[in-house]
Write a structure and sequence with these properties.
Elements: H1 15-28, E1 34-35, H2 47-58, H3 71-85, E2 94-97, H4 100-111, E3 117-122, H5 127-134, E4 138-143, H6 154-160, E5 165-171, H7 183-194, E6 200-204, H8 220-223, E7 231-236, E8 249-252, H9 255-266, H10 274-285, H11 289-309, E9 325-326, E10 336-337, E11 343-344, H12 347-358, E12 360-361, E13 363-364, E14 374-377, H13 382-397, E15 400-401
Parallel strand pairs: 1-12, 3-4, 3-5, 5-6, 6-7
Antiparallel strand pairs: 2-8, 7-8, 9-14, 10-11, 10-15, 13-14
Helix pairs in contact: 2-10, 3-10, 4-5, 4-9, 6-7, 11-13
Length: about 400
């Protein structure tokens, strides 16, 4: 009998974390590596937020807090939901955790029983299926298509729902594709959900403030108020506020669910960092003008990356509505051989050879549940992105047709 939990055998390490770590180690070893795997803004945390954290330290706000958040932060979150999403919550309906990932994990741990199903559109954030598995549930993966803009259709959602379905786990704008759902598209999905009152909605809104062109963000409970009592709306300060290392995520939903999540957290990590919580209060309550400036910078980077990749032989890169990722297809590169002699049969082969031969680290599409694609995070400088994309273009230009393998 293995000493380790059988549940642990059901999951795998995060591919994005692993690739980011590999790129970091290669760079530390002196290799010329450009890491485009991590979803982390290169912008610094705004000064007024850092100042609030320093003030909290000097004020001695360094003790344990309530397990799922200080009252001041819960009130700021309620104000944010009312101000930006038209959603009315009270502090007992709010949970604060050590990052958005813990919010999702707590909710799944608090609700899933063996046999319960969670519908997850693919491509998906790499952690969704594994968190479901760790919680004892069954991920039901519904593949989307490039033709549908990587959006799940109402028909596909309807077909995936069974009596065992407990959650529909939804992310817009999406990691890894950047695809966003319009109000009409989201309304078509909520119409399906209204017909199945045993299905709850977990809406991951982490990239809410990164929306481009004519796309306007909306969230399920806002679009369809009848789903309010069975929706958990998840967000955080990591991406828009450049606070990835501060580790603050939050959610609002029905009070009994929030209480169950609090119980999980009280027996695992207890409260998030007190200093980070006070910084998050300032993030949500303080000046917001920098959000538009940074969003404009990300949009320019998106355009740069998409334009350059679409000039690469064998690559087709759709232009996303939000977040800071692109998810290009490498279908035109498959069956070829790289200049370094690597056979490219899968998107993982593509990413592996790209790192080995050019020093550019990306995440292969199979990690997100849909091939043949790869993900680039463009949350870094224009100069770095231009150099990385130039290397990718040269890599693709060096691909040649592979001889047929013998049977």
């Amino acid at each position: 009998m293995s000493f380790l939990s059988v549940n642990l055998a059901r999951v795998k390490p995060s591919p994005t974390v692993a690739i980011t770590q590999t790129a970091r180690e290669l760079k530390e070893a002196g290799q010329d590596v450009i890491g485009l795997a991590a979803g982390e803004p290169d912008f610094d945390t705004p000064e007024h937020i850092k100042d609030a954290a320093i003030a909290a330290i000097h004020a001695g706000k360094t003790k344990y807090t309530a397990p799922d958040g200080i009252p001041e932060l819960k009130r700021a979150i309620c104000d944010k939901f009312r101000r930006e999403n038209g959603l009315s919550y009270t502090p007992p309906q709010v949970s604060v955790s050590t990052g958005g990932k813990q919010v999702l994990y707590n909710a799944l741990m608090a609700t899933l029983n063996p046999g319960d199903e969670v519908i997850i559109p693919a491509p998906y954030w790499v952690s969704y299926p594994d968190m479901v598995l760790l919680a004892g549930g069954t991920p039901v993966i519904v593949e989307t298509t490039l033709e549908d803009g990587f959006r799940i259709t109402p028909e596909a959602l309807e077909a995936a729902i069974t009596p065992k379905t407990k959650w529909f786990l939804f992310n817009s704008p999406s990691n890894p594709t950047g695809a966003g759902y319009t109000r009409a598209q989201l309304g078509a999905l909520t119409d399906v959900l209204l017909r199945h009152d045993h299905v709850w909605v977990m809406s991951d809104d982490m990239y809410e403030h990164l929306a481009y062109d004519d796309f306007t963000f909306c969230t399920p409970a806002e679009v369809e108020p009848k789903l309010y009592e069975r929706t958990l709306t998840v967000n955080g300060v990591s991406k828009a506020y450049a606070m990835t290392g501060w580790r603050i995520g939050y959610a609002a939903g029905p009070e009994p669910l929030i209480a169950a999540m609090r119980k999980i957290q009280s027996q695992s990590t207890t409260n998030p960092c007190s200093i980070s919580q006070w910084a998050a209060v300032e993030a949500l309550n303080g000046p917001q003008d920098f959000l538009a400036e940074r969003c404009a910078a990300f949009k320019a980077r998106r355009n740069l990356v998409a334009d350059m990749l679409n000039a690469a032989p064998g690559i087709s890169c759709p232009v996303p509505e939000g977040a800071f990722y692109v998810y290009p297809s490498v279908a035109g590169c498959l069956g070829k051989t790289s200049a370094g002699g690597a056979r490219i049969d899968t998107d993982e082969d593509f990413a592996t050879a790209l790192l080995a031969e050019t020093g550019v680290a990306v995440v292969f599409g199979a990690a997100f549940g849909l091939s043949p694609y790869f993900r680039i995070s463009y949350a870094t400088s224009d100069d770095v992105l231009h150099e990385a994309c130039s290397r990718i273009v040269r890599f693709c230009e060096g691909l040649t047709e592979s001889p047929l393998r013998s049977a």
